């Protein structure tokens, strides 16, 4: 992996307060090393690691993605009860979910208008609002 990608990954991990283990550095480099935002599943990141000849187990990928989310470096976007995507873009923004290809992409933030959201139950606060717009091609 390029030195700049590893340095970007190390800096990113430091921002999250995470120790830069070999596995974390490898996965972080794949996720943000080139400065581009990504939407990945654990399985797609596992496949990316295999192509890059990084030796990590699928369980390690799941645990590492969870650690990245817990550290505030990524957001988990749940598309349905069984499918999670992990997003490196941290600002509030909506998503398109393309049902025919099971791909998650960013939707134009400037075109979304939310007039209001329900009040949070007593003793709680809204941490974030996820907007996922499901798309399919007409039949």
From TrEMBL:
Localization in the cell: Cytoplasm
Subunit and partners: Homodimer.
Lineage of source species: Bacteria, Pseudomonadati, Pseudomonadota, Alphaproteobacteria, Rhodobacterales
This protein's UniProt keywords: Cytoplasm, DNA-binding, Iron, Metal-binding, Repressor, Transcription, Transcription regulation, Zinc
Similarity section: Belongs to the Fur family.
Taxonomic source organism: Pseudogemmobacter faecipullorum
InterPro entries found in the cross-reference section: FUR, WH-like_DNA-bd_sf, WH_DNA-bd_sf
Residue spans crossing the bilayer: none
Domain of life: Bacteria
Gene3D superfamilies (alphabetical): Winged helix-like DNA-binding domain superfamily/Winged helix DNA-binding domain
Leader sequence segment: none
NCBIfam families per the UniProt record, alphabetical: FeRespRegIrr, TransRegIrrA
The protein's name: Ferric uptake regulation protein
SUPFAM superfamilies, alphabetized: Winged helix' DNA-binding domain (SSF46785)
Principal location listed in the UniProt entry: cytoplasm
Record-linked PANTHER family: FERRIC UPTAKE REGULATION PROTEIN, ZINC UPTAKE REGULATION PROTEIN
